[in-house]
Amino acid sequence: MQPDNLPWLVQNGIGVTLTVYTIERDGAAVRAMLERTLEAAGLTGMLDIDVATAPDAALVNSLEMKRTILVLEFNRAVAEQAAMMLLAADCYFGNGSIRNIATYCRKPGVVAAAIHVRVKRAEFQSLMHQYREKFGSSPISNAKLVDMGLRSQITAFSESNVDNDRNASAETAISLREVAPDLTAVIQHMPSPFMFWPQQSDIYFFQTGAYGKNWDAFDHIWPTQLIMQRRWKILASSDLFFLVELTDEAEQGHLYPTEEGMRYNERFKHAELPHMILNESIVCTLRREPFLS
């Protein structure tokens, strides 16, 4: 709960409803945890909390549950004429990132994507412990979070460094190049949408569209529709927006084969849709500062 994220929104008169979906047996514990967190941040009573329960994940298809929840929240946002964000429980946002994306996304209809780094859970938590030991509860800037993220990046990211002749970039859809000690250039063919003003066309896409019932459509297919509607925006600098996503390294979905002769590669083998080809032309930047400095 960094000061220039959710607290900034509330303190600047922006109405916020925090809807948390969890399984039924955890509902009461999650609400209690949220209330403690808001109290510690001095935000008690300043934003609405809605703890919504879903069936146990073991009883349903988890991807279908995500899609169903997304459609439900899209309908709510359209009815309220409001923007919405997805805030995953295993993500950590740099201070100011939510302020920046919310300030940019004031125009109805906009969908803003950004780059982020998946990190090894245990390694990142170790770095966070070091930071807290030295700085206590001080906010973590985007630049320091980038440093922590690159120090603990998962194998798929480290093997997407195209300064190396052997890399996995053609399979990961990410190409990383260190252009200076504190600056990394990134081509990302499928950056994730993080804040959006849903429209009826989006509800139709995910509810009844030909591809919309596949959760992967969220960042694999939906952006093509958004580009055709001239709604797709990318916050291409980590100074604007950055987060890390804690990941268990054992997840096989994030292991990819490497190939020789791929130095400076910026092509994704499976770039079949317009947004993937368009995003190949956009160079994003990750700026880092030593996290213990």
What would you note in describing this structure?
The chain is an alpha/beta fold. The chain folds into two domains: 1-60, no CATH class; 84-287, no CATH class. The chain is built from twelve helices and twelve strands. It has helices at residues 6-11, 27-40, 62-80, 97-104, 121-135, 142-151, 155-158, 169-172, 200-207, 217-220, 222-228, 274-279; strands spanning 17-23, 48-54, 84-85, 91-93, 111-114, 117-120, 174-180, 183-188, 192-196, 232-235, 243-247, 284-287. The strands form four sheets. The protein has a four-stranded mixed beta sheet with strand order 3-9-5-10. Strands 4-11-6 form a three-stranded mixed beta sheet. Helix 3 (62-80) packs antiparallel against helix 9. The mean pLDDT is 90.
Structural class based on helices, strands and sheet pairing: alpha/beta
Number of strands: 12
Average pLDDT figure = 90
How many domain modules? 2
The biggest beta sheet is recorded as: 4 strands, mixed
- DSSP helix fraction: 25-40%
Topology:
Blueprint: H1 6-11, E1 17-23, H2 27-40, E2 48-54, H3 62-80, E3 84-85, E4 91-93, H4 97-104, E5 111-114, E6 117-120, H5 121-135, H6 142-151, H7 155-158, H8 169-172, E7 174-180, E8 183-188, E9 192-196, H9 200-207, H10 217-220, H11 222-228, E10 232-235, E11 243-247, H12 274-279, E12 284-287
Parallel strand pairs: 1-2, 5-10, 6-11
Antiparallel strand pairs: 3-9, 4-11, 5-9, 7-8, 8-12
Helix pairs in contact: 3-9
